[in-house]
Amino acid sequence: MSRNYKVQTRFLFHTNIKIKIPEEYYSETVFDELYGILEDVNEKYNSYSENSFIDRINKNSGNFVEVNEEMIEILERVVHFSDMMSGEYDITIMPLIKLWGFYKKSDIRIPEKKEIEETAKLIDYKKIVIDSERKRVKIDAGQEIITGSFIKSYAVDKLVKEMKRRGIDDAIINAGGSSIVAVNELEDDAWIVGVENPEKEKISEKSIEGYVTQILLDSYKEKNDEDLFDIKISDESYSTSNQGNTFVEIGNQKYGHILSPKTGYPGKNKQIGIVTKEAFTGDIISTGLYNQTPEKFFEILAKLNREIKVEGYMIDENGKIHYSEGFLKYVINE
User: Fold this and answer.
1) pLDDT the model gives residue 334
2) Distances from the Cα of 136 to the Cαs of 56, 123, 132, 151, 181, in angstroms?
3) Domain span at residue 79?
4) Is residue 245 part of a domain?
5) In Å, how far are 83, 98, 162, 245 from 92, measured between CA atoms?
6) Which residue of 228, 241, 280, 324 sits 20 to 30 Å from the alpha carbon of 177, by its own alpha carbon?
7) What is the distance between the alpha carbons of residues 39 and 320, in angstroms, rounded to a whole number?
8) Which residues of the chain have pLDDT under 50?
9) Is the residue at 20 inside a domain?
10) DSSP 15-27
11) Angle at 226 between CA 222 and CA 16, to 5 degrees
12) CA-CA distance, 6 to 32, in Å (whole number)?
C-alpha cells in the first residue's frame, strides 16, 4: 500500500536540507521540532557559527577553551577516523583553504610552493589537545578547524535517532545532495537515490553487465544533466564528495576546495561515493578518500571495513569509475 508524505526544505549549514516523512506522523509542529535538532548542532558546533565551541577554539588558538561533553565526543570520533585514514583526512586544513583563496573575492592566485609548504606546517590534527577530564580543547597557535566535512552529517544522524525514537519508520533526509539518509528497516522499502554525474556536459559508457564504467572526457555541445545511475539504500546513508560546485577559477582553470592535507594541493579526482550506516562516518570517509589513487582508495576501504561496514566508488581524474565489490549490490542495473 502506497503512503502519502509531507515534505519540507530549509536552509541550514549553507545548503538546503529536505526532510520527507509519512503523512501520519505530521503535525503543525513536527518540522519545527525536527529542524530544531539541526539548528541546535549548527549553533553549537559549526565552525561558521559565531560563538560556537569550534569558533571559540579557533579564535583562541594556542589556549585551552572550555567545551561540553558532546564537543569532546565529536572531536574524539573525528580524530579516530583521521587516524584510521593515516592523516588523509584532517580538520585543521582551514589555513590552506584560505591560502588558496576560497574566502577571497579578488586577487585569487595559485599560491607559491613556499607558501604552501609554510602553511602546511599548521595542518596536523594530532596537535588538537582534547582534555576530556577537564572538558577543554586546545589547538596550536595559527591552527584553525573547519567542520564542513562532518558537522552537517553529524546533525543529520542526531535527527535520524530522534525520528526513530518517535516511531517514524519510513523517511528520507537530503542534506544538500552530499548526504542522503534513508530511514527504514526493511530492504523491500529501500529508497532510490540518484548518483550525480560530476561532469554535467559529458556522456558515459557502460560495461556489458550494464554498469557505468567511464565518464567520457570529450566535449559535447548538449548538456547531460541525468544522473549516472540509481542506487537503493535501506536504513543507510549515501555520502558524496566532488568539486563541481565549490572551486576557485584561476587562469581559466578550476581548482576544487578538497585539498590534500599532505600535499597542500587540490585533488584531481572527479567524485567519491560512500554507503555507510551513519552519515557522519560517510562524509568523513568520502572527503578523506577524495585525494587518493585507486589503489590507496581500496586499501583504506579494506582497513575501514575491519571496523565498520562501508562500500563505495571512485571516479578518478580520467573519468574511470572504480567500484568496491560490495557497492554494486546497491546499484539498480536496468
Assistant:
1) 66
2) 11, 20, 7, 19, 32
3) 53-138
4) yes
5) 14, 12, 30, 22
6) 324
7) 39
8) 1, 218-224
9) no
10) EEEEEEEEGGG--
11) 115
12) 13
* CB 179 within 8 Å of CB 156: yes
Residue 155: per-residue pLDDT? 98
- CATH label of the domain that carries residue 73: 1.10.3980.10
Q: Which residues contact 130 (CB under 8 A, 6 or more apart)?
A: 72, 75, 76, 79, 137
269 vs 145: CA distance, rounded Å: 24
| Burial grade of 117 (CB within 10 A; 0-12, 13-18, 19 or more) | exposed
Same structural domain, 109 and 203: no
Domain count for the chain: 2
φ and ψ of 183, to 5 deg? -105, 100
CA angle centred on 209, ends 271 and 306, rounded to 5°: 55
Average pLDDT value for the chain: 90
Q: Return the pLDDT at 205.
A: 73
In this prediction, residue 224 carries a pLDDT of: 47
122 and 217 inside one domain: no
The pLDDT of residue 223 is 42
Helices (H), 19-68: 30-45, 53-59
Q: Any idea which residue has 557559527 for its cell?
A: 49
Query: What would the grid cell of residue 310 be?
Result: 562501508
Task: Indicate the pairing of strand 129-131 with strand 331-332.
Answer: unpaired
- Which one, of 106, 143, 83, 100, lies nearest residue 284 by Cα? 83
Could you tell me if 131 and 252 lie in one domain? no
**Does 202 share its domain with 84?**
no
- Output the nine-digit C-alpha cell for 141: 597557535
Residue 28, all three cell numbers: 503543525
Q: Are residues 109 and 240 in the same domain?
A: no
From 85, 83, 66, select the one nearest 130 (Cα to Cα): 66
**pLDDT tens for residues 52-68?**
999 999 999 999 999 99
Cα–Cα distance for residue pair 171/191, rounded to 1 Å: 9
